Amino acid sequence: MRKKKERVIHIKSEDLEVLRKEAEKAKDHYEQLLRLSAEFDNFRKRQEKERQQFLKFGQETLLVKFLPILDSLEKVLQEKNTDMPETLLKGLALIRKDIFSILASEGLERQKVVGKPFDPLCHEVIETIDSKKYGENEIIEELRVGYLLRGRVIRPAMVKIAKHSPKTEKK
C-alpha cells in the first residue's frame, strides 16, 4: 500500500494579503445579500398587507355613494305628516331594509351613538345643549347616521351633545 504524499503549499505574503482582502469582500457581499434578502422579505410582507387592506376597504367608495340613498329613505319614512299611502311606505321600508342588508353583508354598520360620550374621531357636533340632565359631552341626539366599514369610520355621525355651562356667582 502506498502512502499519499502531503503537498505543502507555499504562499507568498503578498498573495496571503490578497486572499484576506478577497475573503473580507466575500464576507461583506454575503452580509449585504442577507440584508437585501431581509429587506425583500419585509417588502413582500408589506405588499401583502396593503393588498389585504385594499381588498378589505376597496369597496368603500361605492358603499359611501349609497349612504345618501339610505338617508333619503330614512327621511321619507320618518316624515310624520305624509299623505303617502301606507302600502307605499311599507314598500319603501322594505327597500331600505334590503339595501342596508346588502351593504351590511359587505361590512357596513351603523354607529350607535345616543347616550355615548362624544368622540371627535367618530362624531361631528352640530349643536350643543346646556343641560345638567345629561353627562358632559354626552350625545343626546343623532342628527345624521354615522357608518363604520369593518370597524373603521367612513362617515361620522352628526350629533347634538350636552354641555355644562360654568356657574356664575353673584357678589
On the 0 to 100 scale, the average pLDDT is 88
The CATH architecture term of the largest domain is Roll
- How much of the sequence is in beta strands? 15-25%
CATH class of the largest domain: Mainly Beta
Q: Whole-Å distance between the termini?
A: 123 Å
CATH topology of the largest domain: Nucleotide Exchange Factor Grpe, Chain A, domain 2
**CATH H-level homologous superfamily name of the largest domain:** Head domain of nucleotide exchange factor GrpE
Characterize the main sheet.
3 strands, antiparallel
Short summary of the structure?
The chain has 171 residues and is of the alpha+beta class. The chain has helices spanning 13-57, 60-78, 86-105, and strands at 108-110, 123-130, 139-144, 147-149, 152-155, 157-163. 6% of the residues are buried.
Structure explained in plain terms:
The chain is α+β, with helices and mostly antiparallel strands. It folds into 3 domains: about 10-55; about 60-105; about 110-170, Roll (Nucleotide Exchange Factor Grpe, Chain A, domain 2). Helix content is about 50%, strand content about 20%. The protein has 3 helices and 6 strands; from the N terminus they run αααββββββ. The strands form 2 sheets. Strands 1-4-5 form a 3-stranded antiparallel sheet. It has a 3-stranded mixed sheet with strand order 2-6-3, with no helix packed on it. Helix 2 (about 60-80) packs antiparallel against helix 3 (about 85-105).
